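Lecture 7 notes: from sequence to structure.
We start with the chain below.
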Amino acid sequence: MSMTLKQANEIAGNLSYPSKMPGAGWSISAKLCVTGGKLAKVVGSVCHGCYALKDRYTWTNAQKAMQKRLDGITDPRWVEAMITLLRDKHSTPQFRIDLGKVRNGTRSRLNEAGWHRWFDSGDLQAVWHLDKICAIAHATPKIRHWLATREAKMIASYIASGGVVPDNLVIRISATMIGDRPPTSWGHTSTVHAGDQDIVGHECPAPTQGNACGSCRAYWSPDVKNVSYHLH
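Predicted structure tokens for the same chain:
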């Protein structure tokens, strides 16, 4: 018997919907970042002043939702639950998401199916966590997955143990410091530039188009080796 959406939500919680992204996401508290948590205290690092440690990410409802997602990853049915949620949400070319109640009714927007981001807040918790994410991506080949991470050692351990990253999952390892060159330990990376610092590879256009991806899908593209975005 296949898992129902109600069961999937009870296990995995709901998906997240980053405002700049075309599709859905999955997030946990940035306070739980293993490497990023240390870098957040280092002035000049890409994690210092992290957007996911302030504003709406700190709201009680957001924290509860992220905690539920975190609690779900150790459930033996989590992979199946995430597959169920993703297949349902991405079953049509566009899907409508509720942005919350306002005085004049319910605000909503249409998102484009086929694109998923892991960790618009937070990061990998362990190698076994990555293994589960890869299993989910493998089971949802029609969805392009993008995973942003600072956990280079976990990626290396996963590969060394025989782990395989599905073709529809692009993992981007982030540089450590603002202005750093792309990490050389992995084929897909991201960097942050400020002022007149060099832009390496594809420059993220979001700052010039309302802080949104728009038609750009570089983060998800295996053909784009590095994405450089301006410090904000």
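Points to note: The longest strand covers residues 94-102. Residues 179 and 197 are 6 Å apart (CA to CA).
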